[in-house]
TrEMBL record:
Pfam families the UniProt entry points to: BSP
The protein's name in its UniProt record: Secretory protein
Domain of life: Bacteria
Classification via InterPro entries: Uncharacterised_BSP
Organism placement in taxonomy: Bacteria, Pseudomonadati, Bacteroidota, Flavobacteriia, Flavobacteriales
PANTHER family: PLANT BASIC SECRETORY PROTEIN (BSP) FAMILY PROTEIN (PTHR33321:SF12), PTHR33321
Amino acid sequence: MNFKINTKSFLFSILLVPLFSISKEEKNGNHNRIKANLATNNFIEKDSVIIKNGYQLTVRNSDPKLSNEFKNNIAERFFDAYPKMLEHFNPKATKSVIIIFSDADTDHPAHAINNEITVFTKFFTKPVRDKDIDVIVHEGFHLIQAYPESKNTPGWLVEGIADYVREIYGLSNAESGWVLPGTLDDKGNKYQASYRTTARFLLWVDKNFKRGIVEILDDKCRTGTYTSEIWKKETNKTIDELWDDYVKNYNKFPNN
Ligand SMILES: [Zn+2]
């Protein structure tokens, strides 16, 4: 959900965190290193370092009340979605990720910063919400975005792209009640509404005007070169013209 990035510490963490993580965990004697089949083992009972296909996931668990099933599902989903997203959008993104399950009392369910994702467990213990495994797709994509701080990059686009990616790479969105809006809301929200509203708009533009528009926008954000003129260049319409068209043709999807 929340997205924060610090360029200097991001670079620092790419270089140093993998080694640091391993040595710290080994020193504490408090980890399980597992290369086994994730699908068939309940393994995340305490802090763990999992290495698979060149990716390293460090899991830190500070909420003993959280079910092993939820933690295992999150780890499995990470190893399913994160490598695919990284290869497709940003092969230079970090391959060493830390997930912290925290019982802290916060107003938001999760956030991502540098190479670290924190999941606030009080949001994920209720029925249905405990199926919200694809939260890790959204948050994982923030690490792949790795956008530098730039006044050119709008926050609504950062979150809109992360939810667009969640729609594409998520495996159990509907099961957890997470769906893109089925109708236009009447609150006057536009593409700047962020999250799912923006994601649905991005999906529509991709299908109707410019295949790959999200990849282009993502790349521009990563180089700090996003401007609103990109929409006109890529689709021959301004973003406001696209939105007006979207309102009229909301349910128009080719081959759909
Ligand atoms: Zn987010």
